[in-house]
Amino acid sequence: MRRSYNLYLFSLPALIVLVLFFVHPVILTFDMSLTSFKGIGEAKDIGWRNYERIFTRDRYLDEIWLTLWYTVIVVSALTVTGLFFAAMLHRLPAIRNFSRAALYTPAMMSFVVVGYVWQFLYSPINGGINVALRDLGLGWIEQNWLGDPDIALYAVAFVQIWMFTGFTCAIFLAGFANIPEEIGEAGRLEGASSWQRFRYLELPLLGPSITVSVMLTTIGTLKTFELPFILTKGGPDGATRLLSIDIIDNLFGQYKFGFASALSIVMLAVVLVVALVQNRLLAEKE
């Protein structure tokens, strides 16, 4: 009993911080979402009208779908690229430290800096990508990368993938470090190739690292705002207008605090549902 009491006692500061800075703000946000508050004046209670507007208009349902699709693209690519580079660096210890630092550097940069640099690179006239393609004789591949609704979302997703590949690579390298060397040696003695050792020995043991990587990148991507806003501001023609952009636009652009709060609660619900489903599925795979 005393040990149990001590555990609860030491958990109390964390619980207090959680309640004050997460639970309480969420409750206040939900309360505001049931009003038509404009930021000044009295908050008029309108019931569930904000939520009815969200779920009865195609625009907001499309934004939820677009946010989920963007997350699928980014998380899938980050998992594959991070795992690929981690597997390569695990087998090349001579360049591991330098390469790990180089890969992780973009993740330490400001979203604003990264956004404006890639906005220049994507420029359709004198942007670095199109100029390089012309110099290589591949001018037929040139695109208006951020101005074409068919490819703008993928162009924005590529920037986020480039930025955080080093982050997922670091997680997987930590997972490789926890794999006993005897397992690899046993595979070599049995004549297993490098691919066979990775596929049948290492990959199953990377289950916990995959779970952590997918969970963190999913939650971060669902909430992403900076890169789509800086690169396209939700355009062209709403092709990159994620739910987070609409929340900021309603909050600071139109001063619809009540409606922005309702969108925030919907986003929180989406994040929680996706995270819980992912955690259950990935835990079973482990």
From TrEMBL:
CDD domains: TM_PBP2. One of its GO terms (biological process) is transmembrane transport. One of its GO terms (cellular component) is plasma membrane. Residues 64-278 form the ABC transmembrane type-1 domain. PROSITE patterns: ABC_TM1. InterPro entries: MetI-like (IPR000515), MetI-like_sf (IPR035906). This is Carbohydrate ABC transporter membrane protein 1, CUT1 family. It is found in: Cell membrane. Pfam families: BPD_transp_1. Its main location: membrane. It comes from the Bacteria. Belongs to the binding-protein-dependent transport system permease family. The chain crosses the membrane at residues 7-27, 68-89, 101-121, 151-179, 200-222, 257-277. It is a multi-pass membrane protein. Keywords: Cell membrane, Membrane, Transmembrane, Transmembrane helix, Transport.
